[in-house]
Each structure stands twice: as structure tokens, then as C-alpha cells.
Amino acid sequence: MDQIIVQILNGLDKGSAYALIALGLTLIFGTLGVVNFAHGALFMLGAFCAVIFNRLLSLSHKVVDESRTDFLGNPMQVDVPYVHEWFGQAAGDALINWSVPLSILFAIPVMLLVGVIMERGLIKHFYKRPHADQILVTFGLAIVLQEIIKYFFGANPIQTPAPDAFRGSLDFGVWLGFDPLTIMYPYWRLVYFFFAAIIIAGVFAFLQFTTFGMVVRAGMADRETVGLLGIDIDKRFTFMFGLAAAVAGIAGVMYAPIVAPNYHMGMDFLVLSFVVVVVGGMGSLPGAVAAGFLLGILESFASMPAVTQFLPGINQIIIYLVAIIVLLTRPRGLMGRKGVMEE
To answer: For this UniProt entry, which segments traverse the membrane (predicted)?
Structure first.
């Protein structure tokens, strides 16, 4: 039972990342009809927003410390972060320690801007082009973005630690009545799951209960009719592209302590996220979220030693096997809409 609970927790952790990326992909496809293969790169850019923000907070300059001397008795020069001088040492250390969650404030405007520039500068020229053209141009953009990151940050992963308060593991089993130390689970992975749940709920609430969201949902269903009502639906769809980019970005920010950011992490998640979107149903936001968590849990159980010993490599292909089964039985996916990508 304890192993089952651990695998469910692992699945929710993986599923959170899949669901957040797939949610952004579906927002873009549902509003603009664009198959965006650069969305994984936006997840990667978000992770590097955390890296950049941490480095900005850690910027320092050398000062002479009279209380410390070298072997010749001369005062030593030490590096002092600027945040120590601006806010004091205690507050400065706290800012650096909490740089990952604080970098969300940095990532949101950056990713909104990146999304709007992408949509206005490139994507809008491919609205009426075949999906194959959209895939090629956005995949090419993803390669360009990851090579830019590789040029400036190198090919090696960059460790971005979680705040001290969330390092280590929680004795999760005690909460469920197990003996102490039976089920230990990393704090930050639990934080990531709850964070993903809040973001997903926030996006659905925004679309469901705000006037802006209602107009966007109406535009997704019948763009021409909304336009005839005098509403500039294009501007709203541009904002939705930026919102989808921001969702992918902050998903990457919070994932940075789990997997050290590297230039190819976007590609690692992109293909799996598209499988999630297809399984959930193209254009279906609830389908994308449900499929993300479902496939994350299945992948986690398929990675158990007892399963891999009996079926070696099953953990590498389980998501694709499920996709084949779902599409054979439900060609539109679990919650797909009629007419989406069926022309």
C-alpha cells in the first residue's frame, strides 16, 4: 500500500507538469487554431527565468573586510551581494533563499511579453496555413530558442535550489496512519502539485466567470459571430497567447528545483505534452488537464521495479500505448469536440 501511495504522489507530480503545459497548448489551439510546437521552449524559458532572477539577486561586488586578513596580515576583499547593502544581510539572504518562488513575479511579465511578440511577430502569419506549416515553423522557433539558451548558459544543467524551508522530505505516511518514515516524500514536489492545482483552477475560473473569459470562450466557438458584434476578438486572442506563455513559464519556474534547468528540457516535455493534448481531446481544456494527471500516474506505476522487471522498458512507452488505445476507441480523445482537426 505504501508503494502505491508513493507512485500516486509521483504520478501527480509528473501529471502536474504535463497538465500545465498541455493546458497552455490547448489554450493556444482552442483560441487561435495553431499547433504550437514552441510551447515546450516556453516552459524552458520559464525555468531559466528562475536561473536569471537568482543570479540577479546574487550579484555582488568586492569590499574590504577589515575584520579578516590574509596570511600576510592584509585586509581581505570579500564579495558582498548588492541586496545585502540595499535591504540588510538578513533580508538579502531571505530574498536569495526564496528566489525561485519570487521569480514568478519576474517571469509573468517576461513570458507575457514573449508570448505577445511570438503571436504578433510570427504566429499570426500562419493562422490560415495548414497545420503542417504551423508545426514546422514553431518547431524551428523552439530549436532557435533552445540554441540561444545553450549559447548563453551552456549545455550543463544549472542547479536552482528550493527555499531552505522546503528542502528535505515530509513524513507523509504519518498523516495516513502509517509508521513513521514509511512514506517520505520531497516537500517541493508536494508544493508543485498544489501550485499546479491553483494555477489550473485560476485559469478555469478566469475563463468561466469573467466577462473577458466568456468572450474568449464565445470566440473559440464562433469567431465570426463575435466579430460581427463589434468585439475585437483578435486582441483578446493575442492576450490568451500571452497568458498561455505565462502559464508555461511559471510552470517552468516552479519545476526548476525538481529538474535542474537545461537547454533541452522543453523538448523533453513537448512530445509528451502533445500526446496528453491528443489523448484529452484537441481543444478540450478539461480533457488536457484530466489526461495530464492520468498519464502521469500511469507512467509512475509503469516505472515500478516490479513492473519493469516483468515488462522491461514499459515505462518508456506506456503513454504512447495508452494514446493508441484511446485514439482507436475514441478518435477525438477523451473529451474532444466534433470537427476539431477533422477537416
So the answer is: 20-53, 102-123, 190-216, 237-258, 270-298, 310-328
